[in-house]
Specification:
The protein has 221 residues and is of the alpha+beta class. It has seven helices and seven strands.
Length: 221
């Protein structure tokens, strides 16, 4: 699931309440509040007041403050209300692992109400239930069986058994997503190596080695 317009809707009062638990220095909190309340300026010069919510997108401390906010809005709340449910969160993208359809529907509705209480809302177009189909779970469900998270696609995948020769089985795994592949390919094209004829082969190697190492690690998984 994804939170709609998260950085624009973080409530300043609730954020400062979370900050009080970790920061004692009044002067630090004063500067953070001034920064949060500072108006933003668009390209045409128009000033937009924050009106008690939102963190500056692109600001160096915004990710830290936003993660602190969601730590109490979601992380600690899920641990308290649903201690047996596993979940992972990266910024405002969240995956919650449930054992049944009924549990998933109930938790999704509970999260929706929790966010509403904390003056946030789900991005319904990017939030969905997924059935993690594998050889153990072959029921027919009215949900998709694939989702993308942090540049990877998680979906049913055929694997070779390590114990029974050439036997294959349906597992649930991940691989680099198609959108990530497209972005990487477009990035390589923009480098225009064929037009940089003044470079020695060693110069090219130094420029692309780090990229290649990252790709090899991703593709080897």
């Amino acid at each position: 699931m994804d939170i709609k317009s998260f950085f624009d809707e973080v409530d300043h009062e609730l954020l400062m309440k979370a900050l009080d638990k970790h920061v004692e220095e009044k002067w630090v909190k004063m500067y953070i509040l001034r920064w949060l309340e500072c108006a933003s300026q668009s390209k045409d010069g128009t000033l937009t007041e924050k009106q008690g919510r939102g963190t500056p997108q692109g600001g160096v401390i915004s990710p830290l403050l936003s993660n602190l906010y969601l730590h109490y809005v979601l992380d600690k709340w899920l641990e308290l209300k649903f201690p047996k449910v596993a979940f992972v969160r990266y910024a405002d993208d969240v995956v919650v692992h449930c054992e049944s359809e009924e549990e998933a529907l109930a938790i999704l509705e509970a999260i929706r109400e929790r966010l509403k209480t904390c003056k946030l809302r789900l991005n319904e177009t990017k939030t969905k239930l997924v059935y993690c189909k594998n050889y153990r779970m072959r029921e027919k469900k009215d949900y998709g069986s694939k989702f993308d998270f942090l540049g990877f696609s998680f979906k049913p995948t055929m694997y070779k058994s390590k114990r029974v020769g050439e036997v294959v089985f349906l597992g649930y795994g991940c691989e680099i997503s198609q959108s990530s592949k497209t972005r990487i390919i477009e990035g390589w094209k923009k480098l225009n190596w064929h037009r940089q004829s003044t470079l020695e082969i060693q110069d090219i190697a130094l420029k692309i080695n780090s990229r290649m190492r990252g790709l090899i690690k991703i593709l080897a998984k």
